[in-house]
Design goal:
Blueprint (H helix, E strand, L loop, with lengths): L1 E7 L3 H12 L5 E7 L4 E8 L6 H4 L3 E9 L6 E9 L1 H23 L5 H40 L2
Helix pairs in contact: 3-4
């Protein structure tokens, strides 16, 4: 998870209107805005994932944001966090656990053939490669979201 905090030169209601008008109509993007009781506004956006294989090819980042009214007049504290979609994280963890499970089976003597060793290494390597690729894509997509939000809020 990455966190991005900054101050904006407007009040929370104006910022929420800008975000809703700019991002609410984007095709394929899910944008939810919620007014809290303590004068804060929260929002959540993510790319819509229609099919399971979209996780591999599309952006699977969830953006959670909070607009907080600052003590000074006409300023807003914006707190945004970027997290990875649960299914992508689950896919990587499942592959790594499966690989280690097979390696433990080999070490305990259950499977001692070379084919079983190959079956053990494939999910482990696949999980590690996916994790490295996911980290690179995560950083790139977070930067894209930061650019998009910066352009919408024009600061």
């Amino acid at each position: 998870m990455k966190v991005w905090n900054f101050n904006a030169e407007s009040n929370p209601k104006e910022i929420s209107k800008k975000l809703a008008s700019a991002l609410g109509s984007v095709d394929g993007l899910v944008f939810h805005l919620k007014h809290e009781k303590n004068n804060s506004i929260t929002f959540k956006m993510r790319k819509r994932i229609l099919y399971a294989w979209y996780l591999i090819f599309q952006n699977s980042i969830i953006v959670n944001g909070k607009l907080l009214k600052s003590d000074t007049e006409n300023k807003t504290r914006v707190e945004i966090s970027f997290t990875q979609h649960f299914l992508m994280t689950f896919l990587i963890i499942a592959n790594i656990i499966a690989g280690f499970g097979f390696l433990i089976a080999i070490a305990s003597g259950i499977g001692n053939s070379p084919a079983f060793f190959i079956i053990a290494i494939i999910p482990l390597v696949l999980g590690i490669v996916l994790w490295i690729d996911l980290q690179k894509r995560f950083d790139r997509k977070v930067q894209e979201y930061k650019t998009l939000i910066s352009e919408v809020l024009a600061f």
